[in-house]
Amino acid sequence: MNCALHTEVEATGFCRNCGKALCAQCRRDVRGILYCEVCLADMLARPQPVASGVSPGLAVVLGFIPGLGAVYNGEYMKALIHVVIFAALVTLDSSGRAQPFSGIMTAAFIFYMAIDAYRTAKARMLGQAPPSSALGGWSTDKPIGPIILITLGVIFLLDKYYSFWDWLGDYWSVALIVLGVLMLWKRMGRTS
Q1: pLDDT for residue 88
Q2: What pLDDT is recorded for position 63?
Q3: Contact yes or no for 57/79 (Cβ under 8 A)
Q4: Is 115 within a domain?
């Protein structure tokens, strides 16, 4: 294989970053690792991570308190969304048929907040960008946080006027079957 830049010269290695074939003139050896000049310049131009004073352990502990883990990580809008979702789940717990659903969802959400706070604090400690959050909508392509809030609002509105939990109690099994069929159909479409 010939060098990517000097096509008439035999390659002596490959850039670890981009995989280009490199001749002896093009390759840059850094502690036994080969890079091309462009990749090496990009790595040097990147700001170096600065360790911050955040503690992932403290973040996970604070994450069990609604919104506090996000506040510790400086994500105030996410903290507000966490508090609103938690309040909505606790409010759902007051009606009779919603208690099992609400209890499971509340417990899952509490653990989600703690794990999210830990991941964000760990990334901040390493000087990296925070990981994508499923509930934020501000760091992913999909606005999942706003969709969850709108869905909770619709559920409360339906419950107020149409006794939503009675209807859900009667037809939840149908909803699970439909969801399973949709997931299976989507997966089968991907493999074929």
Answers
A1: 77
A2: 92
A3: no
A4: yes
